[in-house]
């Protein structure tokens, strides 16, 4: 299935690229979430007419993500949680908890933007947490977990 991308998608292409994807990926993800349109003659012509508008929106989105990343680089979070004698937490701290803490620190972050490669935090200590704000923009914050 050929589609025209309406935004930059990692490992696939940039705005305006005509790419071939599997039918299910196009029908079930790209097209319903307005990330692409089918590559018909009418859609190609309509896209070319809207190209400047879409590129402007994409650049504004990128600038907003870069601004948020700059604000986030100054944040160091300290969270407290119940823990045992050896520093093991009763429970865990996941993306939702971190998103709420970062948002309360002044920068709005969705839990889907937080990338925790090792999974939820289950022990006290210092952690670096990656935040993917845009396809091209990522930030890292330091999180300190202390026992209550």
UniProtKB/TrEMBL annotation:
A Pfam family this chain is assigned to: Ribosomal_L9_N
GO biological process, one term: translation
GO MF, one annotated term: rRNA binding
UniProt keyword annotation of Disulfide bond present: no
Role this protein plays: Binds to the 23S rRNA.
HAMAP family noted in UniProt: Ribosomal_bL9 (MF_00503)
Protein name: Large ribosomal subunit protein bL9
Organism: Endozoicomonas montiporae
């Amino acid at each position: 299935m050929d589609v025209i991308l309406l935004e930059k998608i990692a490992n696939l292409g940039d705005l305006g690229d005509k790419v071939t994807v599997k039918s299910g990926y196009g029908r079930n993800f790209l097209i319903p979430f307005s990330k692409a349109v089918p590559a018909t003659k009418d859609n190609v012509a309509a896209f070319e007419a809207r190209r400047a508008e879409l590129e402007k929106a994409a650049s504004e989105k990128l600038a907003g993500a870069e601004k948020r990343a700059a604000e986030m680089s100054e944040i160091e979070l300290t969270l407290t949680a119940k823990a045992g004698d050896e520093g093991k937490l009763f429970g865990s701290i996941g993306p939702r908890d971190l998103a709420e803490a970062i948002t309360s620190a002044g920068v709005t972050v969705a839990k889907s933007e937080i990338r925790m490669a090792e999974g939820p935090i289950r022990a006290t200590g210092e952690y670096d947490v990656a935040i993917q704000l845009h396809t091209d923009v990522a930030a890292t914050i330091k999180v300190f977990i202390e026992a209550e």
